[in-house]
Amino acid sequence: MKAWQVTQLGEPRNALVLSEVADPVPAAGQVVVKVLAVAANFPDALLCRGLYQIKPELPFTPGVELCGEVVAMGQEVTGFAVGDRVLGNPDLPHGGFAEYAVMSQHTTFHAPRVLEDAEAASLQIGYQTGWFGLHRRAGIQAGETLLVHAAAGGVGSAAIQLGKAAGARVIGVVGGPDKAEYARWLGADVVIDRHEQDFVEVVKEETGGRGADVIYDPVGGETYRRSTKCIAFEGRIVVVGFAGGEIQSATLNHALVKNYSILGLHWGLYNSKDPAAVQQCHAELTRLADAGRIKPLVSERLALGDIADGVQRLADGSTVGRLVCVI
């Protein structure tokens, strides 16, 4: 089969090589899927650079989120059958940037019928992260104001739709007019281009000086620090990641005097700490998709041969919306 392999660590355009490799074989508790579509995610770039928390031995195939068709099953697999259309997170080193991938049954889910392959491939990481961040960690309520940073990215775009589905008023922060237009398509009530406006001032103006009840931050660094200037009394800041490249330090006396909470979110831990909650989340996401309340918006569809270029552009921050390779 054809598969993109990381043969040496570095930038995706240099690290990824399209190769012919043996078809994978499932172990106990695993399924092999024919990849129908695979979404590009920032962790894929980090894997190429050797900067992700998981560091597979070279060579390996990235691609951490996919939609596929089950073609083979190992022993002890229950709940799936050959021919099922599924989505989820493949088991490295046999990731989704290939014609076939390997998945563990506990991170594999039936794909919602209402979503086509590219959309289903984009449902897992961003929407699960958003659901756990907004509902389980922040306890978002209808009528609250949600501020979403990097609102045109994978996790940010999901947070916009999930916030609207929860009845919140959503303010999205993006960088550039194309990303601003994408955030509006997603349903954001207010969109701020950080190159043109100060998001702190806009949030204060839009909330009558109160600030945002929930701030969803996958950027970190200076973005986090300035977010503390527009968080509401008893607000919640959900720390999702550090795409800006700087891990900030929290000023705890400021959290004390303003009565706000700082909430960390590492969604992947729920797969081992509370897998039942992940199953519950997928059921809720499926319900929302069936009701038309959420729908991943795929902005660019790639061929298999375009993956290295697409992941590089994602790493460089020059993409808008979700990039998905349809195989």
Automatic annotation (TrEMBL):
Residues 13-325 form the Enoyl reductase (ER) domain. InterPro entries: ADH-like_C (IPR013149), ADH-like_N (IPR013154), ER (IPR020843), GroES-like_sf (IPR011032), NAD(P)-bd_dom_sf (IPR036291), Quin_OxRdtase/zeta-crystal_CS (IPR002364), Zn-ADH-like_protein (IPR051397). Signal peptide: none annotated. One of its GO terms (molecular function) is oxidoreductase activity. Gene3D superfamilies: Medium-chain alcohol dehydrogenases, catalytic domain, NAD(P)-binding Rossmann-like Domain. Pfam families: ADH_N, ADH_zinc_N. This is NADPH:quinone oxidoreductase family protein. It comes from Streptomyces luteolifulvus.
